[in-house]
Amino acid sequence: MKVEPNVGKKVLVKRAAKGAGLGLFADELIEKGDYIIDYVGEILPNAQCENHPGKYLFEVGDHFTIDGSSRKNIARYINHACKPNAEVEIEDGEINIYAIQKIVPGDEITYDYGKEYFNEFIKPLGCCCKTCLHKK
Question: Residue 24 belongs to a domain with what CATH number?
Answer without folding.
Answer: 2.170.270.10
